[in-house]
Amino acid sequence: PPGFQRGRHCHPAPLVLGTMAAPIKLNEVLKVPSLGIRQEAITFASCTMQSEKYITVREQAGEQVMIHIIDLQNPAKTEKRPITADAAIMNPIAKILALRAGQALQIFNIELKTKMKAYSMPEAVTYWSWLNERTLALVTASSVYHWSVEGSADPVKVFDRLPAMASSQIINYRNDNNGKWMVLIGISQATDGSGRIVGSMQLFSSEKGQSQSIEGHAAGFANFTCQGASEPSTLFAFANKGAAGAKLHVIEVVKGTAAAPSFQKRAVDITMPPDAAADFPVAMQVSDKYGVIFMVTKYGYVYIFDVETATPIFFNRISPETIFTTCVNSMTGGILGINRLGQVLHVQVDDTTVTNYLQGKLNNVDLAMKIAARAKLPGAEQLYSANFDQLLR
What is the rounded radius of gyration, in angstroms, for the C-alpha atoms of the chain? Predict the structure, then answer.
């Protein structure tokens, strides 16, 4: 893609559109195969990344299984362990490794070299991920469980899967920061013979103990302080590609300040390029730092939207191959993604160009001011005073 640079220590490459610099920076952090890991092992089933700290790869050659734990801050320190397991996943914060062999689950503290917990599930786990540093989520064909690494408790069932999700391959499971809302996301082949990939979601409220079924391929939760509020609301964003086209929706599921005006729900069309007509969303991450939504598609495009208004800001192809796993980089407010070639890509908002881009290319001074203020960008004050002067004219 344009503006690509290789190497971990390089400066992220700015993308240039005609005469105007794009509002994002893109760089390749790492090529996983450069660590001696075969490309065949870099798949959705074998390669996981829960945060900017670690990547876990399960590699099998003949009968031998190796678990690679890649330290993203120092890839040269990659650990390689012969462990017989069907799947492995690193905790997003600590050096804690979860392993799965058949229906047997184990959690290890690698630094202390101790087994923390073990449990045998009554049915097979078809998808798992860390919700946070304390909780491992386990999805089976019928239900969703949460397993705390603390204490001695076994996994606890949170909700049963809706019948509408029965035929879906689960590709993601998320919750909001307060653990009050969860969303299970799956995909399946359309039954109309079109070959279209259908997205199905189950949105669950732990307080109400109720689920609702939603059509959608990718989703995320945001903490966002709405206008007139003193506390952040919980917003739920989701994207769906249906027979009639693609749409992004943003709704409020938890109000931050009761007395403040309600968040106005948003729905916008997502324009996909003519040569990517069959493309669909596969991942969504919300950057609370900038108040923007990053949406990644099957064909390797990234789309960026404002979370408050759902305004489309930018899109560009960043990968020639499918990006099968993503996470927020909490240090930059950007996102990391791994594609099937084993490229670990990092996309972030470019602090030096984003306000000029929003004012010039999008002619949206209001959004430029809001993003500058949210991210505390240098020059935010000048933007406000310039806008004030303009209003006084």
Answer: 21
Collapsing DSSP to helix, strand or coil, 20 comes out as strand
Residue of 377, 368, 360, 383 lying closest to 18 (CA atoms): 360
Instruction: Strand 323-329: give its sheet, edge to edge.
Output: 13-17, 20-31, 343-349, 334-339, 323-329
- Global pTM? 0.92
Strands 266-270 and 169-175: unpaired
Q: Is 195 helix (H, G, I), strand (E, B) or coil?
A: coil
Contact by Cβ (8 Å): 322, 340: yes
Give me the torsion for CA of 74, 80, 84, 90, rounded to 10°: -10
Cβ neighbours of residue 141 closer than 8 Å, sequence gap 6 or more: 123, 124, 126, 161, 166
**What is the rounded distance in angstroms from the CA atom of residue 250 to the CA atom of residue 165?**
22
DSSP string for 208-267:
TTEEEEEE-SEEEEEEE--TT-SSPEEEEEEEEEETTEEEEEEEEEE-S-TTSPPPPPEE
Q: At 219, phi and psi to the nearest 5?
A: -155, 160
Check if the beta carbon of residue 224 is closer than 8 Å to that of residue 233: yes
Q: Which residues contact 227 (CB under 8 A, 6 or more apart)?
A: 260, 261
CA distance 142 to 162: 8
Q: What order of strands is seen across the sheet that includes strand 125-130?
A: 125-130, 135-140, 143-148, 156-160
Contacts of 66 (CB under 8 A, 6+ apart): 58, 59, 60, 80, 81, 82, 83
Please say whether the beta carbons of 73 and 55 come within 8 A.
no
Q: What digits encode the pLDDT tens for the residues 11-51?
A: 445 555 554 689 999 999 999 999 999 999 999 999 999 99
DSSP code string of 276-339 = GTT--EEEEEEETTTTEEEEEETTSEEEEEETTT--EEEEEE--SS-EEEEEEETTTTEEEEEE
Over the stretch 346-358, which tens digit does the pLDDT of each residue have? Answer: 999 999 999 999 9
SS3 content of the chain, % helix, strand, coil (to 5): 10, 50, 40
Q: What is the largest CA-CA distance in the chain?
A: 76
